[in-house]
Write a structure and sequence with these properties.
By secondary structure, the chain is an all-alpha fold. Helix content is 83%, strand content 0%.
Length: 178
């Protein structure tokens, strides 16, 4: 039985480069999933908050501001701590802040929805840069191009998030108040 040389390659932390590739692809997919699942439920959040079009635009603006801050600051974080360590913090933070935003909407409080969305954007912006940095590092370790596959994983995540949001909506699963 032959073993592919690539499977034997180890990364600097002693793990398999292929396992690292799989983990990076999963991060890209999760990033797409969270993005699309938020967008897919936004009309329901609007209805449950009783928000105006302007207020929904401001929710999106808060998300964007957080994302820009995260994108700008992520390089320094990755340089200091490494992209993997940063991702170990930002991925759970992304989940927690999304739950916090949903909880704010659940109680019908606009501010308690907006503030966590700023942090969703922050977490997502940092995650975006660090997952791409980790992907590029993984490409170098593998010695071949895999970045298109990572971006395809993001796209598959967006499809899964959109389908999940649509299915939840069709099944009348509340994302906020019941």
């Amino acid at each position: 039985m032959s073993v592919d040389f690539q499977e034997q390659k180890m990364d600097a932390a002693g793990g398999s480069v292929l396992a690292w590739r799989t983990a990076v692809a999963a991060i890209f997919a999760l990033s797409g999933l969270t993005f699309a699942s938020y967008l897919g439920r936004l009309p329901q959040v609007r209805d449950d908050l009783g928000a105006t079009t302007l207020q929904v635009s401001l929710l999106t603006f808060g998300l964007a501001v957080g994302s820009v801050v995260g994108l700008v600051g992520s390089g320094a974080l990755a340089a200091r701590f490494g992209s993997r360590r940063v991702l170990a913090v930002t991925l759970p933070a992304l989940g927690v802040t999304m739950i916090a935003a949903a909880a704010g909407a659940q109680v019908g409080n606009y501010a308690l929805t907006l503030i966590p969305l700023v942090f969703v954007g922050l977490s997502h912006g940092i995650t975006d840069v660090c997952m791409n940095l980790s992907g590029a590092e993984n490409e170098r370790a593998l010695g071949r191009t895999v970045m298109p596959a990572f971006h395809a994983a993001f796209s598959m995540g967006t499809v899964a998030g959109a389908l999940t949001a649509a299915a939840a909506q069709a099944a009348h699963v509340p994302c906020c108040r019941t």
